[in-house]
Each structure stands twice: as structure tokens, then as C-alpha cells.
Amino acid sequence: MTDAVAALTAAVAGHVRGLRTARGWSLDELAGRSGVSKGMLVQIEAARTNPSVGTLVRIADAFGVTIARLLEPAEERTVRISDAEAAPQLWRGGEGGFGRLLRGMNDPSFVELWEWRLAPGERHTSENHMPGTREVLHVLAGTLAMTVDGVDHTVESGQTIDFPADRPHTYRNAGSTEIRLIMVVIVPNTEWDRRLGPPGQS
């Protein structure tokens, strides 16, 4: 495990444990709310695993925070400048593509800024996020094949697509050149217990 990955894993461990204990939740309670197994949560809080982006989404949703909140260093700064190369890659494609979280904000709104690259033939399927979540994607290069809730869309270089991300969606590169895009994710400021369905329902 590299120093950068070890630091990231430790940050996630500390934040998950801190957010859980601050709410008075047991591991079983967090497992129920997030849909992540208790065994996996034990591994995460002990900093013994580097969780997938899907697992981080479920845990962040349960707490009502962004993924970035789980990854951020302990210190808070009014102004923060960071290098793209230092941003955590939370998804890696089989042909060299990646998705990395450039920055996230938790106050006053929950917003994440991502950079994505998909090599020809790569795809990433995302499960539904917290109800009310939206994504805005701007394609910098290539042609993105986007499926949202079973409906296909083609997004050309220079175009922007925004859509409700609280339903299944897939990004695909069906072309012969790399796709580069920037994505903004806007997340509602509320906890989500997946056992109860969407927020506000029981």
C-alpha cells in the first residue's frame, strides 16, 4: 500500500468511525442504514481496506455527507488549492480510464467535482444515489454514450448533460478515442437510511 493510499484509507477510517460514534450508531445500525455489510465496515474502520466508490457512496448517503467528507484531511482551510494528480482515483477502468474526486464541499451545500476519463470500450455503471442527487457532466473530448434510467443519450465533445442521479446510470465509451469529462455532483443535505426507502418515506 502506497503512502498516499494508506493516508486515504486512514482518513476514511477515522471519519467513518467518528461520524458513526457521534450519532451513537452501532456498526449494525450503520450497516442497516447504508446497506454495507458489518464485516466491511469493520475492515474500513480498522483501515484494513480501500473501499470502492460504490461502498463510499452508500456510507456517505447514510451519514448525509459527500464522499469528499469521508476523504478530507483533518485540518480545515478557508482557501485550498490542490493538484489534480494528488486527487484520489476512486474508479479505475480496465484499459487505463479513471474517475477521480478533485474536490468536495460540505458547507453550505454538498457538491463534488470529478474528473473522468474513459478509454475506448470502458464503461462505468453507477447504482442510484441518494434521492434528489443530480449530476452535471461536461464532455471535454470524445463522445459519451450515457444511459439514464434505461434511456440512451449521446453527448458530444463540448456538450453538457445534467440528469437526476437517483436512478441507475451508465457512462460508456463506444468510440475509438478517449473520453475526457468533468462532472459535478449535487447531493441533498440529509441522511439516508436505505432500509426505509427514499428520505421522507417510511
Q: Briefly, what CATH class of the largest domain?
A: Mainly Beta
Number of domains: 2
Q: Tell me the name of the CATH homologous superfamily of the largest domain.
A: Jelly Rolls
- For the report, how would you describe the main beta sheet? 6 strands, antiparallel
- Percent helix, as a range, is 25-40%
| Shape type | globular
Trace the largest sheet across and list its strands. 1-2-3-10-5-8
The CATH architecture assignment of the largest domain turns out to be Sandwich
How far apart lie the N and C ends? 42 Å
- Gyration radius (Cα, Å) is 17 Å
- Overall number of strands: 10
Low-confidence stretches: none
DSSP helix count? Answer: 5
Descriptive notes:
With 202 residues, the protein is of the alpha+beta class. The protein is 26% helix and 30% strand. β6 and β7 form a beta hairpin. The strands form two sheets. A six-stranded antiparallel sheet has the order 1-2-3-10-5-8. It has a four-stranded antiparallel sheet with strand order 4-9-6-7, with no helix packed on it. It has two domains: 73 residues, 434 Repressor (Amino-terminal Domain) (Orthogonal Bundle), CATH 1.10.260.40; 104 residues, Sandwich (Jelly Rolls), CATH 2.60.120. The model has no long low-confidence stretch (mean pLDDT 89). The longest helix has 20 residues.
